[in-house]
Amino acid sequence: MRSLTPRVWERHFTALRPYVLEEFPQVDPESVEMVGDDFSDLVEAIQAATGLSAPLVRQRLEKLDVDEIDLGSDGSDADEADAGSASIDQLRLGDGFSAAERDRIVSRLEKLNRRLRKFPADGTDLLLTVKERETNSQKVTLECGLPHFPPFVATSHESDLQAALLEVREDLWRQIDDAVNKRKEGVS
Known about the structure:
Strand content: 5-15%
CATH class of the largest domain: Alpha Beta
CATH superfamily of the largest domain: Ribosome hibernation promotion factor-like
CATH topology of the largest domain: Double Stranded RNA Binding Domain
Number of helices: 7
């Protein structure tokens, strides 16, 4: 049995929608369609419709047996091929965070996997820190080192930690996109 992971959702979300809607019948099909391939947004949409906690939604999604779902000619996925690709799983938690928060934080930043997987895991470094946590002067910093690129640093001064995580996620996404696009333009 292989479970529905964020990576599997990202690659096969169109084929998987009916199974998610069967598991969570109270969810509006249009809201599932609107999340596209973003697993974190899917979890949030299901939470909004069901009132379930994010960990419980994730647990129920992971229990969906995607081996029984035809995901391609041989039903396989490219997870094995991506074993050497960078991912948010490489995130190190620095000052201000505890190991107990890791799963929730990785879940919040998971969207970055779509950008990170284009880079090798070897030589990729991610560090998340927070200063003056839970104060009005809170500062969340997400540092990212990718091979053959200068370091990326995304910061947020949002006092709400969840909002700050989303802000640094989106900022890092934009920075990586900008750097890759500039490099492509320079090569073309």
